[in-house]
Sequence to fold (502 residues):
Amino acid sequence: MIGLNPLKFWFVCGSQHLYGPETLAQVGEGARTVAEGLAAGGRLVLPIEFAGVVTTADEIADVCRRASADPECGGLIVWMHTFSPAKMWIRGLNLLTKPLLHLHTQLREALPWDSIDMDYMNLHQAAHGDREGGFMHTRMRLGRKVVAGHWTDPEVQDRVDAWMRAARAWDDWQGAKFCRFGDNMRNVAVTEGDKVAAEMAFGFTVDGYGIMDLADRMAEIDDADVAARAAEYLDLYDVDPTLAPDGERHAALLYNAKQELGLSAFMEEGGFKGFTHTFEDLHGLTQLPGIATQRLMAKGYGFAGEGDWKTPALVRALKVMGHGLTGATSFMEDYTYDMTLGSEQVLGSHMLEVCPSIAEGKISVEIHPLGIGGKDDPVRLVFNSRKGPAVNASLIDLGNRFRLIVNAVNAVEHPDLPNLPVARAVWECEPDFKTALQAWILAGGAHHTAYSYDVTSEMLEDFATIAGIELAVIDADTRLSTFKQDLRTNEVYWHLAKGIRA
Fold:
């Protein structure tokens, strides 16, 4: 994955000095056992570092200040093994700028019923201490995740892992740069947005460049490197014979290889994590980048077409969340429907740019007319997507806030598409086709999305909590009347919660 920083998470245990040194030594030993046990469980994507037991306001402020200043700290996991009076945490939590997870657990899974005494009760007070801590988190209106259960439980560890992945994606956005070649596709609304508000909310910037900047960088690419990249296509994919070295359209394959090398160099030299362009602004290029964009996405870059700068950031975030899993995340668009009653499906695709990380089976390299934009025929990777559960997510700008919309879907088998020369996925929506589509439209969901087989709704919920943005989930439990009322209620809540700063 390009541009991914190393991260670890600090495990902090709360207690108080009134217990005395002997008890606190046991508290520290128990907390270390939990932290190291979680780290050794093999289910967490990133390491945990035991950051000690804190017993005073000064100690808490110090650990929160150090965590916030450490670029390799992805967030704090806190646990009140005993009882930590929560007023001690106010100053420190006010200083904390990293994501927070409250683990509500205890050292031992089972109670020693035959030997339990008051010494045991005093030393194992998470049921007491975590409620005190939880009250203060709520009183301070802190966005955080709460995970309850024994720390050895695989479900508990998986929920911690989901939060870690969301926190890692959030860290990846801080200071990230996304490149926008040209402007927005003319007259399109949902792909626009407030880039100042986005930087305030999310920490990334969107930098504008002329498409000639890319054309100039392409002109610097050596012909030998272009030939080598084209030969790589021939090794990896099933290439249309007309694009082969002895084919009449081999020059088009070479041009696409030059596009990939030039675009890759531009992204790397600029330190970008994603990009967007539009077919309405291609001066200096003979064709819209197809295979180049697809292969850069497979390396971890975010992308969306038509000048849409929010979706590349979201695609990048989902790629980071899924890092270490299958890698199956792509830019996507809900393109058209099969509305056969009782078996409704969505055909997802785009003009060219679907990431091969979601491919199943043969990947072919083909060249076809685009039918839009008035440029030469572009080369693209064509394939079917894999099957199974996935999420489709959209990030929109509502003016006074951002909303993340998520639909749980299931990719399914579909008939052959011999005349559709683009990569594609076919899915069924939860809870059902009509409810999902109506909810998506009511929520303002875009046609451009980030689509992933790795990322879960829980990860995206954690991400929205960390980012402090609205979340609208459409899944098996969605009821349209409740969903509509939630959207109305959210209008009031987010207006008040964000205040005048928005």
User: Anything to note?
Assistant: The mean pLDDT is 96. The first strand starts at residue 8 and ends at 14. Residues 96 and 282 are 45 Å apart (CA to CA). The radius of gyration is 25 Å.
